Each structure stands twice: as structure tokens, then as C-alpha cells.
Amino acid sequence: MADVKEKFKVSGEPMDSAPPVTIDRAREPIVVVDDLHIIYRVYGAGGKGNAASAFSRVLRRDHRPTMKEVHAIRGLSFVAYKGDAIGVIGTNGSGKSTLLKAIAGLLPPESGGVYTSGQPSLLGVNAALMNDLTGERNIVLGCLAMGMSPDQVKSKYDEIVKFAGLKEGFIQLPMRAYSSGMGSRLRFAIAASKSHDVLLIDEALATGDAKFRRKSAKKIDELRNEAGAVFLVAHQLDSILEMCNRVLWIDEGTMVMDGDPQTVVDAYNEANAK
Ligand SMILES: Nc1ncnc2c1ncn2[C@@H]1O[C@H](COP(=O)(O)OP(=O)(O)OP(=O)(O)O)[C@@H](O)[C@H]1O
């Protein structure tokens, strides 16, 4: 992390121009998000959106796509340290998934930056498992995609099947026969079979039942100890309270609060009760 420490202000060491993030020297930074801005560009947007205006555009042969910008993340800054399990909360469209994708390196920043120590892995609701393949095949593919060798896959296989805890026989069925809860259990079991430098979990636990969530919470604890940092996006605030040691509340792409889970969740509930 020397490069990150050099680039940013380390607490107690003043720099000429004050950067927006400050790094605690006593802890190991894993992710630094520095004044991040993400803008989506949507082509083909525009017009009045009713049938008459669409028809008149066709008659005018007006095929030129117009472009609309969605400024999803507006100047977020924070540092995640080794061992952090960070919950990200906010109302629909506040920018939670966009933030995780940006940390995973899937979205280019408009300005500002994201710096990670090690490889981030994003485990999303649509993590790349193949619906037409059996659970068995998906375990092998998923593990290979995470960089395991065939021997490592063999040695992890039983542990993954056990953790996913699918009903008898389902592991030999194509994933399209799974319920959404079963799919998310298998995705989580595959992702959790390897330690990650930065593990990003986007709603992947949302459809698991209470027992599976407890099991996942324990697993996330283990991953936190082995790994760098874990980020969790979830609408169920009790999973956030169970699994995280820190919560970021974002709204319209900006930071509202960053701190202790109970304090942030209480403030969030109070704001949304109005
Ligand atoms: N691919 C995209 N193209 C254009 N705009 C997008 C795209 N993805 C998200 N957005 C917009 O960016 C903003 C943030 O969306 P994002 O999905 O990050 O929110 P979220 O907090 O994860 O929402 P939710 O809780 O509903 O999952 C929203 O205004 C959304 O409409």
C-alpha cells in the first residue's frame, strides 16, 4: 500500500494541498475512494416520451440519438481498512450498486478515483453463473473463474455444496430450476470458498432465509479476518447490523453518514420514517 499512502495524506502529516481523504496511519488501507464521480450516459433518451412525439420523430426521420447524463456518484470519499465489513445503505437509486461496480473496476470514474490493494471481486445478484448448466458445473466454472486450479476446485467442491445446503439432488439440476434463494445460496457459497482481497456483495444474500443469513454472517466474519475488506449492499437493515462493523449511508450519490452501524441505521430509519 505504499503507493496509496504516498498519494494521500496520512493523518498527522500535513500536505501542501489538502486532499479530500485522510488515511489513518495505524491501519492498513484496502480501498481508497477519492472524490469519486460516476456519470452514466444513456443514448436514445429524450423527446416527450409519448406516442405522438415518437411518431413524429419517425416521420421526420429523426434517428439521431439524444444523450442523457445520469450523475450517479457525486464526489464520494472514504477509506476502507483491513478487516472492515462495510454495509452500504440508501434508498432506491441512491448509487449503492454503482459504487460497488466502481470499486470492482467495472465503471470508469468521470473524475476522482478508486484505489484498491489487491483484486476486488463483485458478487452480484446476477453473478455470472449459467442458468442452463447444473449447479455442479457452475461450481467448477465459478471456481475456475475466480482463479482456482482444477485441484483446488476438487478440494473445495464438497465444502461449497455443503455450505449452499441445497435440497437433495438439486445440485445435478440446471440452475434455471432453482428458486432465487437457492441461486443466491450457491453464488454466495462459491464466492465464499476463496478468500478475497476485497469482496463486494450486492444484494446477493437478499433472498436467503434467516438460517442462511446467520451462516453467511459467520462466513463473512471469517472472510473479514482472512481478507482485506468486505462491502455489503442490502435493503434488509438487520443483515447489515448483523454482518457489518461500519455503515455508509449514501443519498443521490453523496455521503450522508459514515460510522457505527447502529447509529447510522437509526439515523437512516428516522429520516425515512418522515
Ligand atoms: N446502466 C445505467 N445507465 C444509466 N443510469 C443508470 C444505470 N445504472 C444505474 N443508473 C442510475 O444511476 C443511479 C444510481 O443507481 P444504482 O443502481 O447505483 O442505485 P442503487 O442505490 O443501487 O438502487 P437500488 O436500491 O434500487 O438497487 C440511478 O439514478 C439509476 O437510475
From TrEMBL:
Positions of the UniProt region annotated as Disordered: 1-21
SMART domains according to UniProt: AAA (SM00382)
Domain ABC transporter: 58-273
UniProt-listed Pfam families: ABC_tran
GO molecular function: ABC-type transporter activity; ATP binding; ATP hydrolysis activity
Chain intervals with Basic and acidic residues compositional bias: 1-10
GO CC list: membrane
N-terminal signal peptide: none
Record keywords: ATP-binding, Nucleotide-binding, Transport
Highest taxon above the source species: Bacteria
Protein family (similarity comment): Belongs to the ABC transporter superfamily.
Database matches in PANTHER family: TEICHOIC ACIDS EXPORT ATP-BINDING PROTEIN TAGH
Name of this protein: Teichoic acid transport system ATP-binding protein
Species annotation: Actinoallomurus bryophytorum
Taxonomic lineage from the root: Bacteria, Bacillati, Actinomycetota, Actinomycetes, Streptosporangiales
